[in-house]
Amino acid sequence: MEKKLRWYDLLTINSYWLGINIATGIITPVLLPALVVLFMPPEQKNTNLALVRMIGLAVAMLVQPLAGLFSDRSTHKFGRRRPFIFAGAVLNVVFLIVIGASTLFYDPAASSSTVTSSGFTTAFLVLILGNFLWQISTNIGHGALQGLIPDLVPDDQRGKASGIKAVFELLPSILIALLGIGALVDNHKFWQVIIIIMAGYVITMLITMIWVKEKPLEQKPADKMQEQVLRIIFLTIIFVVFVIGAQYLVRASTTILPEGASRVGNILIVGLTGLLAMAGAVLLGVYVGARVGIGKEANSQKRFIWWVVNRLLFLAAIGSVQGFVQYFLADVLLVPEPATTTTYLMMIIAIFLLISALAGGYLSDKVGRAKLVGAAGLIAAAGTVLLLFSKSIPMVIVSGSIIGLGTGLFFTTNWALGTDLVPADKAGKYLGISNLAGAGAGIVGAGIGGPMADFFNGMQQGLGYQVIFAIYAALFVLSTVILATRIARKQGL
C-alpha cells in the first residue's frame, strides 16, 4: 500500500513549478519584448522578437523531452529528477547573467547599439545567445520535473497534486504584477528583474532538494535509448523545417502583390497566406512528426494525432497573443508604460483563467470534455476578435478576460480529453510526443506572425496587430472545427 503524502509534501513536490513559471511569466511577455525594442530598430521589433523566440523554442522542443528521457534512466544517489533540477537551476543563474549582460552593450546615448556585419546589434546577439542558453538550462529542469508527480504521488492523490501544480502555474501572473516587475522593466532596471528571477529559481530548487525525497533507481532500464533520442531530434528538425518553409511562403506573398492594389487586397493576399502557412505548418508538422514519433501505430491513432493538431492550433494562438500584447499596447493604444500594463493585464487574465479552470474541471465529467474544449476555442476566438477593435484599456481588459475564460476551460479539459484518447499501456510515450506541441505552438505563431505584423505596420501603424490577431482568432475557430469533425464525431463524444 502506497504511503499517503501530507499536504506540505504535495507543495514541496510542486515547488519548482513556481520558480519555472515566475521566470517564463516575466521573460516571455515582459522582459524579452522590452529588450528587443531597446536593442533593434522599432519598425522590425516583431520580426526580431519572433527570431529570439523561435530559436529558444526550438531548443525547448529538443531539450525538454531529452531531459525527461535521461532523468528516467538516472541512477544518481539523489534520485532521478532532483539532480537535473539542481543542475538546471544553477545553470539558469549563470545564463540569466548572459541575458543581463546584453544591456552592457547598449548605448542609450546613441541611436542604436554597435551594429555587426550580420545587421544585428551586438546587444541583440548577446540577448539571442543568453535566451538560447537559458532555454537549455530551464528545460533541463522542466523535463525532469514532469516526472516527480508520477514518481512520488499515489494515484488517489494525483488530482490534488495536479491542482497545486495548476495553481503554481497561474499564481506567478499575480505575483509578477504585485512585485512591480512591469514598472522595473519600463524604467530599465533589468538587473533587478533578473535577480528576482534568479531568486525564484534558487529558492524553489532548494525546497525541492531539501524536502523532496526520492528513492534512487538501482538499475538503468535495459532498453536502448538511441532510437528514442533520434526520434526526438528528427521531430524537432521536421517541425522547424516546416515553419521555415511557411515563413518563406509568407515572405514570397509580399513580393507578388499587384502594383497599385488596394490595402484590403494586400491584407487578403498576405493575411490568408499567413493563415494557411500557420495551419499548414501545424497540420504537416504534426502529421509527419507523429509518423516519426509513433511509428507504425500512427494509422490506428488518428484521433490522437488530430487531438495534437487541435491542441497546437489553440496554443499557437494564445501564446502569440500573449507574446505580442506589449507591442500592441505601446503602438496601438500608445500606453506610456507598456510593460507595467502588460503585467496587470496578465494578472487579470490569470484570475479569469483560474475561475474557468476550476469550473471546467467540475463540468467536464457532467457535460463532456469534447464539448467544453470546443466551447473554449469559440470563447477565446470571441475575445480575440474583440481585441481587434479595442481602442482603450478597459476594452483590452474585457477582451483579455474573455480569452482567459476560454484558455482556462481549454487547459483543464483538453489534457483530460487527450488522456482519454491515448492507449492506456503507452500513455507516457504518446503524451510525451504531445508535449512537443507547447514549444511548436510558439514557433508557429510567433515565427510567422511577427514578420507579418511588421509588414502591415509598415503600411499603417497598428494594422499588423489587427491582421495577426484576426489570424489567431481563426486558429481558435479552426481548433474547434478540427475537434468537431475529426475527434468528437468519430469518437462519439
Please outline the major beta sheet.
Answer: none
Strand residues, percent: under 5%
What oligomeric state do the depicted chains represent?
A: single chain
The average pLDDT value, as a whole number, equals: 86
Describe what you observe in this structure:
There is one protein chain. The protein is mainly α and 493 residues long. The chain folds into two domains: 1-214, Growth Hormone, Chain: A (Up-down Bundle); 223-493, Growth Hormone, Chain: A, CATH 1.20.1250.20. Helix content is 79%, strand content 0%. It is built from 17 helices and no strands. It has helices at 7-39, 45-72, 82-101, 122-145, 148-152, 158-178, 181-186, 190-211, 226-255, 263-294, 302-331, 338-367, 369-388, 393-421, 427-434, 436-459, 463-491. Helix 3 (82-101) runs antiparallel to helix 4. The longest helix is centred in the N-terminal third of the chain and has 33 residues, at 7-39. The radius of gyration is 22 Å and the shape is globular. The model has no long low-confidence stretch (mean pLDDT 86).
Topology:
Elements: H1 7-39, H2 45-72, H3 82-101, H4 122-145, H5 148-152, H6 158-178, H7 181-186, H8 190-211, H9 226-255, H10 263-294, H11 302-331, H12 338-367, H13 369-388, H14 393-421, H15 427-434, H16 436-459, H17 463-491
Helix pairs in contact: 1-2, 1-4, 1-6, 1-8, 1-11, 1-12, 2-4, 2-9, 2-16, 3-4, 3-8, 6-12, 9-10, 9-16, 10-11, 10-16, 10-17, 11-12, 11-14, 11-16, 11-17, 12-13, 12-14, 13-14, 13-17, 16-17
